[in-house]
Amino acid sequence: MDYVRAFAAGGLICSLVQILLDKTKMMPGRVMVTLVVTGSILGCLGLYEPFVQWAGAGASVPLLGFGNTLWKGVKEGIADDGFLGVFKGGFTASAAGISAALIFGYLGSLIFKPKMKE
Hints:
Blueprint: H1 2-23, H2 28-44, H3 48-55, H4 57-60, H5 63-81, H6 84-112
């Protein structure tokens, strides 16, 4: 059942983003920033964590989850380091995910021969 909830939640998020891309004139970069900021705001309000507990990876993997991770890191950073934690906390919390994305992206480019679109 965990897989079904994760698939449904992730699919719903992706569907809503696709509708946003199709029905508005927002560019993909702005939509991505909107998702990260929305995840941070929902995390700040305490609304995103219960959703993550229910949906699992379907809520923690999309960009909304990245925004929530940044918020949690900033919150912990402020508690540990004061004002300096505002700048340091988000990087500390998201470092493993960003590193994994870079490493696996590089390995994928070595295996699959990337090409430019024409």
